[in-house]
Protein 1
Amino acid sequence: MFQLCILCQIMFLIVDEIQIRTLNTGNTDSYTNPNIFEDYISLSDYHMFPSEKQSVRFTIEACHDAFILLSAAFDLKSHDFYEICLGGSGNQDTYLRRKYNDANPFKISTPDILGCTEKSTFEIRWTIEGTIHIAKESAVGTETIIDVKDSTPLLIRGVGIRTAWGSDGLWIFESASMQTHGTQDNGEVSEICRTCLDEIWIQTLDSGNVDATKIPDVFNYYTNLSNYHILPSQNQFRISVKACHDAFILLSAAKDLQSPDFYEICIGARNNNSTVLRRNFSSNNVVSTLTPGTLSCTNRTTFFVSWEINGQITLKKETSDRPGGVFRWTDTT
Ligand SMILES: *[C@@H]1O[C@H](CO)[C@@H](O)[C@H](O)[C@H]1NC(C)=O
Ligand SMILES: *[C@@H]1O[C@H](CO)[C@@H](O)[C@H](O)[C@H]1NC(C)=O
Ligand SMILES: *[C@@H]1O[C@H](CO)[C@@H](O)[C@H](O)[C@H]1NC(C)=O
Ligand SMILES: *[C@@H]1O[C@H](CO)[C@@H](O)[C@H](O)[C@H]1NC(C)=O
Ligand SMILES: *[C@H]1O[C@H](CO)[C@@H](O)[C@H](O)[C@H]1NC(C)=O
């Protein structure tokens, strides 16, 4: 979708960085798993298209085993790829594998290339002639880690990330990696518009059988919208979700979500049969309403959430035929 810059600034999000948290995907890689690409998160889900610039730059915090997939397919669903592992073998090696079961990956010793609590910045560049260049940036300069040429190059269309072998990761992509959506004649404005996005898709992984009826610090299981520079300010926001059931929204008293004072909404609870609202850690729902089949595994469903100073919370579902209220409830405390 294409949006004019001016619109962009008024109506859409301006983002200067995107953070993605990847959970450990287990003891798996392209050496043993032919469908390893299914374990990757595609940057295109976040509206980042590094293939256009043939490079990707990111900062990562992970103890070891940060993987990048350079794929022949836009959606990563291809057996034709390069898999790069930074800090493999317990943060000892970095390697580049060309395909599944590639027994002779390009491998070099890179002790402590990653750090559990340290942010490391990397840039990966490639060309259609088959060169792949990986460099690490630090205060003392830029160090080339890998510089290779593949004699049978592949045309890279998609880029994915994941962490594995017991490692979780926090990845930060700055706006320069993102796609340009706005254009304007005025130079100053288009400078800002380089970072205009018209929508952001966030992939959330199953956080397990936890909710505010079960654990007091459930807020630690939420993805923080402020990390995406989404700061609902008008006491309302619109969100589309594609999920089979159990889509949770936390309305927290704290900017960083670290507060026991919150509302938890669960859309499509009980196997997609009901929608509930909870206040704080509690075994009781303050609202529970029947909404059979409200979410769809395959289609986006759009909801509108709003809240008012008098404690009224409203959830509406937007459908093409009839926009309908799911619930409206007023908290008297
Ligand atoms: C949410 O983001 C804020 C600001 O970036 C940060 O201080 C806080 O720790 C984050 N909270 C969680 C639960 O990730
Ligand atoms: C929710 O938690 C906050 C903070 O602990 C507390 O001040 C408030 O009274 C609680 N509200 C309800 C309805 O339990
Ligand atoms: C929920 O909906 C499913 C069909 O989607 C149905 O089989 C089931 O009995 C309903 N009730 C519960 C509590 O899961
Ligand atoms: C999903 O959307 C398509 C196209 O808009 C429509 O034909 C289909 O019926 C929808 N499926 C569901 C489960 O709502
Ligand atoms: C929730 O309802 C939608 C629409 O009927 C359906 O496509 C989806 O499979 C349901 N999810 C579950 C877990 O039943």
Protein 2
Amino acid sequence: MAAAAPAMRAGLAVLAAFLLLLAASGAGAEGAEGALPRFAEAPEYRNGDGAEPGVGELRSALAASFPSLRFEIYPFRADAVTGLISASVRAALEAPLNYARNYLADLLPKCVPRAIYLDSDVLAVDDVRRLWETRLPAAAVVAAPEYCHANFSRYFTDAFWSDPDLGERVFAGRRRAPCYFNTGVMVIDLRRWRSGNYRHRVEQWMELQKEKRIYELGSLPPFLLLFAGEVEAVDHRWNQHGLGGDNILGSCRPLHKGPVSLMHWSGKGKPWDRLDAGRPCPLDHTWKSYDLYIGDGDASQASAPSWASLSSSALPAAVFSW
Ligand SMILES: *[C@@H]1O[C@H](CO)[C@@H](O)[C@H](O)[C@H]1NC(C)=O
């Protein structure tokens, strides 16, 4: 995650997960899905080589970049989830850290009542206090911007919609019609998550996905299955997503209309890749100033420690700050 300094300095609990910095090992991909296309994404030096844990290096990089930030690091053990991961439309979506969001309530101390989850490909350009102050009504476990114009059917397969035990039946009785929401930015009520045993419920959908392919994306669909039609809607300014283009081409995309509090490079195209390749999209330049990674020979930001030695298996899933 790269966050503008004012946002990170807010005296608030912010939870940021480091995702998508790594390519899929494919370790969890099983079954008869071998025919799916594979896309190489992040360059190797960002993916690491499975060497020693880099918690110490992450700690010093964060401390150097955000001197006034108080934070804790909670490592996520990838083996908590690898057996549950199915192949998806894009190899990077199969990386275990994509699923760390399912385990926040377990990773964080029981006394933490709420978390803001942010993907690693977001840039907060506003004070996250405003997002933190989102009011979750009694029934809501998750708050996130909703996109009701998106065709919800397309997030699930025909096998899902045609199964009389699944399909419409799953969403019957929800507070509202189910709409798509993006799981890269979520305010999560951890108490309700824990008491509703949602980690187990996400895992149950992942088990079903292994038996019967009900969706094509990675970690997102189980959240739609559990919370679509129930989430507390947050202003769209908090997830200007899709800046990475689609899941196949990763082409340049402009911002949506309206105010912007958070930019999200969801999709295949990542700003660090496009910058490194010398083919940035116009909005990628905004990312550059906040990228904590310093490549070898990049003397321009030599004051911050290098992230080059962080390995993908060891990148801590969560940084909790207050
Ligand atoms: C939504 O997507 C489904 C499945 O691809 C399609 O059958 C349906 O016509 C679409 N609906 C609209 C309104 O575009």
Protein 3
Amino acid sequence: MQDEGYSFPSTTINKKLKKHCQFISQTKLISSYITDFFFFFFIMANHIVLLSLVALSFCYLAFAFEPSPLQDFCVADPTSSARVNGLACKNPMTVQANDFFFSGLHIAGNTSNPVGSRVTPVNVAQIPGLNTLGISMARIDYAPWGINPPHTHPRASEILTVVEGSLLVGFVTSNPDNRLITKVLQKGDVFVFPVGLVHFQQNVGYGNAVAIASLSSQNPGVITVATAVFGSNPAIAGDILAKAFQVDKKIVEHIQSKF
Ligand SMILES: *[C@@H]1O[C@H](CO)[C@@H](O)[C@H](O)[C@H]1NC(C)=O
């Protein structure tokens, strides 16, 4: 780009642009020339306009998930009939310490169920003071060889800490690669599950295991793959699932009967 006579002021952003332009002028692709044109257009238009656009795109990134609070707190008012994105705020004058409080994460969850695990959530449903704050947590108990079945949180990334036992954890990347990324964790180890990706944990020890998960939403949501697909209400038609899973309809009906 430089040899084509454009001049760049020495801001960091423009240095990056310059690098990019040098790169694309080296790779002689038609698409590069189109990109070149747009960079030329932007640069000639006005540096301030360009910087505003960059700043604006950062704003959109910042608001891509939960909105930042615009007040100290917005303790959820479960009695309000107002419909907002989140929960309506209680009168701040009536807010008490207990609105920010939960007790019970020292208590092990009951893992006597077919999967051998139990999640004890601590989100805005348990602590109304979490409303608008974009965080929550959970305790997860695992019986020996118990699993937290493949599931996804539509609104949150998750960071999980093992506080007891050993866990095999994993998540699968989106289409088309569907790469499985797994690791065995020991006590004190921390692992991240990126937002929206299907993930699971398995206790790979003969004793109980315990983990604490933190999530980047006050209301992360959970979609358990097996329950959503085979246990929906009403059921997804058997022929649809038979074709989707490439198995006989009888097998689908058998799985559906479990949920
Ligand atoms: C745990 O759950 C099972 C199955 O629902 C139940 O039979 C059992 O009583 C529960 N145990 C405790 C300690 O609550």
Protein 4
Amino acid sequence: MNFIMKPLLIFILLVVCVQVAPKTDFQCGCVIYTSLPFMEKNADCSQSSANMKCLAQLGLSSLNLSDTRLRKVPDLNDPGFRAIKELNLSGNNITELADWKFGSMEELLFVNISHNKLTSLPNKEPLSIKMDLSYNQLEDMTDLVPLIKAKVILIGNSWHCMCNNSLVKQMYRKFPSFMENNIVCKKDDQLEPFAMHCHEIINNTENLEPNATIASRVLIVSIIILFVISTIYLLLKYFFDFFFSPRPQG
Ligand SMILES: *[C@@H]1O[C@H](CO)[C@@H](O)[C@H](O)[C@H]1NC(C)=O
Ligand SMILES: *[C@@H]1O[C@H](CO)[C@@H](O)[C@H](O)[C@H]1NC(C)=O
Ligand SMILES: *[C@@H]1O[C@H](CO)[C@@H](O)[C@H](O)[C@H]1NC(C)=O
Ligand SMILES: *[C@@H]1O[C@H](CO)[C@@H](O)[C@H](O)[C@H]1NC(C)=O
Ligand SMILES: *[C@@H]1O[C@H](CO)[C@@H](O)[C@H](O)[C@H]1NC(C)=O
Ligand SMILES: *[C@@H]1O[C@H](CO)[C@@H](O)[C@H](O)[C@H]1NC(C)=O
């Protein structure tokens, strides 16, 4: 029995291993490899010239176009790119993004566009995916508005910090740690952290609050106090009525 079972088991194990093991091959000018556990296909086209039409046929879930001398985001409108979750465009010469959409990639979760030449960002809609924007040439602080609630990496950009600008003050008041952790300001030929560069507005944060928000807070607090007082009153009234009011005899 053992004599037959052992080789059979080993054979079955081998077949399973070969099926499950990640495969690597060369297609469309890129290295294509599968990743576990769902056997997703990834294309690593780093430092090579990819055939995009060909790649679109593969049903990829990640695409690495880093260091491929791109000057703009390539055409990614083919529906074959729909399942891509991760796009790597780092180390290119991309100077602008038209919007936050990357062709037909509807399931995109992360884009790495670090080490490019981006000088501005789309500022219509908020960014909803994770993005590495480090080491670009971003400098206009109005570009920060769509990023403020997103997961972004911004190191390696030197911002033109307008400390006295009302938008900047507002962003600082609402998201102080975002500003302090992500923004490095240009100062003459040097760089200075936001907190140091704009210490005047930081020192005066308490005075930045517009009267409207103060008024609405006062209103909310008053309503809560009123509610608590009336609840206590009603409870006490009920308590006294129950125990101390004369009961009808009968
Ligand atoms: C390309 O990017 C993928 C993920 O985006 C990464 O796993 C891979 O190591 C990268 N390749 C190179 C050569 O950097
Ligand atoms: C970007 O463009 C410059 C000038 O055209 C060139 O010298 C440089 O090698 C390019 N860099 C990349 C990463 O393609
Ligand atoms: C993207 O490409 C760069 C350069 O090839 C690499 O260092 C990085 O690990 C890649 N992956 C991600 C997730 O950015
Ligand atoms: C993005 O790519 C750069 C290489 O240009 C790499 O150093 C960095 O770690 C990548 N970012 C992330 C979040 O993986
Ligand atoms: C910012 O504005 C205030 C008054 O509005 C002024 O006193 C201050 O000097 C300004 N600071 C800078 C850095 O321009
Ligand atoms: C303002 O901030 C600077 C730097 O953080 C600090 O040295 C200074 O004492 C502060 N001034 C006031 C009035 O709080």
